[in-house]
């Protein structure tokens, strides 16, 4: 049995200087669980930041291999938590065991993916221009370039991914890989899970001889503890997966600091799905079934949950709508992550239900228990949608909206009017896709990921993923929060002019001791510098 | 003789809808030159932005080769302007002919460098993960990733690089290479030069069949026309080389937009130079001579001008100080770019001259003409420097400050207290450098470029350059404004999931028709996808 003390993790120390507390709850019922957690005081915030700044001086000099060993040790410690972690996480989130087990595996795989990136080593984008003393009119200096870590990163745990985007999640793994200490503001909806995982990271840090302060974890309110962290002079970057309100508030605070810092807020979106005519005719049933499942998967609690479905009116479209209605009526809801999230979902769907331009097309099966979100599929017209900005806002949960348009032009017009989203999905045959290149062109400018003949839920963790998109789906549309490219959120390039080879980082030394890919005088190579 | 009409360039059209004007002046004397320029009206600003947004839809689909041809055509048109461009540019900036000719060559080379980057094609960072339908528990999708342009970019011409960082300068070249239309806010200190170059770009765009609106150029005040541009809904990014005041104002405005956008302001810095003990003993004369030359090169009007020199008190240091004093007394000033810049320089140096903790160590030769900046070398202590934040601010021009410290610890303490700078320079023998690793470690966190045994003026345009640095030297310490990596200021990644190969951009198609480097399932290769 793992002991829970409810304290802040400040480097290798535990601290409980405050008197205010927050409480762990069973998500499905709201009942209090046994554990209590101290909220961090401002001096605890300062202590964590000071330790992180000091730790950065040591951690930034660790080799890729040493950082990989640390990430691998975190993965090992996570696995070692066994079923106790799964049980408490299920209790605190109301997510089913099979999902939490899969998420634990994903979290472990993310850590190992970054460990692999570090062991291979080429991610630093090493660039070398060799000098030429004889060049006219001026000698050419020797210049060598690579990415280095920005400094301490504050990570906010996400409610909807209590493992994969929380304490040891993707943001934390990417920041560690970049060479940055991490301070996590634990999510108050799963503090026990947070402490389990936070202590696993601390054990991994101790076992692999990482500096005290490479990791801290604090409990508290986002508006208090979170803001203190974002405003702290030692903090160099912020990552959060959360609501628009939370992400935007952190972004604004970060821009207004004496020294502004980047905030990578992944704030979700409605992830439009388009069904093109031939696909609609041929794949009616698969699409209807797949869409209903995607909307209600995990009680709709995914950033990539599809909140908007568009297709053109045709001979076949009514039949599709009826199929969709039927499929949706077979879906079930379930308890949501927190009472607050359920409340917001109910408020959002109730607002739509009474909107004069919106019909309820279908509802999922009524739940037998209380505290459950009830799936609902709305329907409106392109005209109403275009005239009501508020209909573009995400309702977090198992709700979606169908728009049957009068024409292809109306499809294009809705697409053009979209703001930034994480994903857009298009169902189409090869013929459909070829004749809707204009739609694909528009979508490419609106989203980070275009999904063909699939559904946006399910984000592959790999080198090629973009889980990001133009504002307001994120606060930094140049970034991804999933996949190996997410490491660049926490780095900047530095270059060395005429530095003796022996004093350079190993990545840039003549001999290429790490055997990494480098751009030498414009050519990609693993050769040494001659 | 090239005709000057003083109008806005709005795509392929000229426009002069306004009534307010600005005037070209001879920089050395302030006297009015023949030409007058209309300030852009707000509807002209809107017209340029609308055209840019429309042009983006065509320009973003141009192949790398087509964009390269455009950049090469701009280079050709610039060269074709011949001596007339050089003459007018010298008049408007008071910079000598040899410098402006070198700068024109640099500008041409920058355009050709980006053309080369586009012709080679691998810059898009293509990443491919091939699908695996048999993977358990879920099939692996095919995901393909690459960088694409952000959309219209506003570029502010810099006063101190009237060609290389103005209308057809590095920012413009990088934005075009990224696939982004450019709207230049011409610098009002060299409007005739601006019109020459702007029309050259327009001719190149017409000749190479680029879309109307791929380039526009407007005259006006930064606080009016500039702000209208930065706030325009169609503008997706901003680049400026300028003062802290200008850059910060644009950054703040961009953060406060309904849809915030990135601002890449390169705002200069004092670029500290450190001389380590053995190098000081051995290379006294070279360093003293080199430093005095670097401070006063081009009347000190470089972002990388060294405004701070530090070395430890020793048996040799007084001799070095005397040498430096003598070298500095041989330097000359000259006319500055504008009366405003000269005024700010005189105000800045006058403030130092009466500061009780500061001595004047040496002055350059008195100029015979008026309107000339007079080089001046100040001296203070580490203690005074640490106690007066205002001494860290850049005085733009041929001034610098010497600090002789009592110890190595004091050197490290000054280094630790530095804010972000573009560069830091260290003079040291191999032995010096090895025993000052702690200094190099600190500097790596403070600057974008570390220069060993050289001087920071002179920025090599190449793949490996970082001309950027932590705030306040720039508003985005993750970026460089010189070199090929500067293209990533104007891009974001997008990924395609299960897109048929034929519909993908050429960069991501199975056959690798562009023969570029790609990361396929984690391996760097030029092979096709099997």
Portion of residues within helices of chain A? 25-40%
Count of distinct structural domains of chain A: 3
Biggest beta-sheet profile of chain A: 7 strands, mixed
Counting helices, strands and paired strands, the structural category of chain A is alpha/beta
Using CB atoms under 8 Å apart, which protein chain pair has the greatest interface? A-B, 80 and 80 residues
| Sheet with the most strands: spatial strand order of chain A | 2-1-9-8-7-10-11
CATH topology of the largest domain in chain A: Aldehyde Dehydrogenase, Chain A, domain 1
Which key phrases capture this entry?
23 strands, Aldehyde_DH_Superfamily (chains A, B), ALDH_KGSADH (chains A, B), 15 helices, homodimer, alpha/beta, 37% helix, Aldehyde Dehydrogenase, Chain A, domain 2, 530 residues, NADP-dependent aldehyde dehydrogenase (chains A, B), 7-stranded mixed sheet, Aldehyde Dehydrogenase, Chain A, domain 1, Ald_DH_C (chains A, B), oxidoreductase (chains A, B), 19% strand
């Amino acid at each position: 049995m793992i002991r829970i003390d409810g304290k802040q993790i400040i480097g290798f120390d535990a601290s409980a200087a405050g008197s205010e507390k927050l409480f762990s709850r069973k998500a499905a019922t709201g009942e209090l669980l046994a554990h209590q957690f101290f909220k961090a005081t401002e001096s605890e915030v300062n202590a964590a930041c000071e330790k992180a700044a000091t730790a950065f001086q040591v951690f930034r000099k660790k080799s890729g291999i040493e950082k990989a060993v640390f990430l691998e040790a975190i993965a090992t410690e996570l696995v070692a938590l066994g079923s106790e972690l799964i049980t408490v996480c299920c209790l605190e989130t109301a997510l089913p065991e099979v999902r939490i087990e899969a998420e634990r595996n994903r979290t472990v795989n993310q850590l190992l993916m970054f460990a692999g990136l570090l062991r291979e080593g080429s991610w630093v984008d090493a660039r070398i221009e060799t000098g030429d003393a004889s060049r006219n009119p001026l000698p050419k200096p020797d210049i060598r370039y690579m990415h280095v870590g920005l400094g301490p990163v504050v990570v906010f745990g996400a409610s909807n991914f209590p493992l994969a985007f929380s304490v040891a999640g993707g943001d934390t793994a990417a920041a560690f890989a970049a060479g940055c200490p991490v301070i996590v503001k634990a999510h108050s909806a799963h503090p026990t899970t947070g402490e389990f995982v936070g202590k696993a990271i601390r054990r991994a840090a101790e076992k692999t001889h990482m500096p005290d302060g490479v990791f801290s974890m604090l409990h508290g309110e986002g508006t208090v503890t979170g803001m203190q962290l974002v405003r702290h002079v030692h903090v160099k970057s912020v990552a959060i997966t959360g609501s628009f309100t939370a992400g935007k508030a952190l972004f604004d605070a970060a821009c207004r600091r004496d020294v502004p810092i980047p905030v990578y807020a992944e704030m979700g979106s409605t992830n439009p799905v388009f069904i093109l005519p031939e696909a609609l005719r041929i794949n009616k049933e698969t699409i209807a079934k797949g869409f209903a499942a995607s909307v209600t998967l995990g009680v709709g609690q995914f950033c990539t949950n599809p909140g908007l479905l568009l297709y053109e009116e045709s001979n076949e479209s009514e039949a599709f709508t009826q199929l969709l209605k039927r499929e949706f009526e077979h879906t079930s809801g379930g308890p949501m992550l927190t009472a607050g999230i359920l409340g917001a979902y109910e408020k959002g769907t109730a607002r739509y239900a009474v909107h004069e331009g919106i019909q309820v097309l279908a509802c999922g099966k009524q739940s037998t228990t209380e505290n459950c979100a009830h799936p609902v599929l709305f329907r409106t017209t392109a005209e109403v949608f275009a005239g009501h900005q508020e209909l573009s806002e995400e309702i977090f949960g198992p709700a979606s909206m169908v728009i049957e348009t009068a024409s292809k032009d109306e499809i294009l017009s809705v697409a053009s009017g979209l703001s930034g989203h994480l994903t857009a999905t298009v169902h189409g045959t090869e013929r459909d896709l070829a004749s809707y290149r204009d739609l694909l062109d528009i979508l490419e400018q609106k989203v980070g990921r275009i999904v063909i003949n699939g559904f946006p839920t399910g984000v592959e963790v790999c080198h090629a993923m973009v889980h990001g998109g133009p504002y307001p789906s994120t606060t930094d549309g140049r970034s991804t929060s999933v996949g190996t490219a997410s490491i660049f959120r926490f780095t900047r390039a530095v270059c060395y002019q005429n530095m003796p080879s022996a004093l350079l980082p190993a990545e840039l030394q003549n001999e290429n001791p790490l055997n990494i890919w480098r751009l030498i005088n414009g050519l990609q190579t693993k050769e040494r510098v001659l």
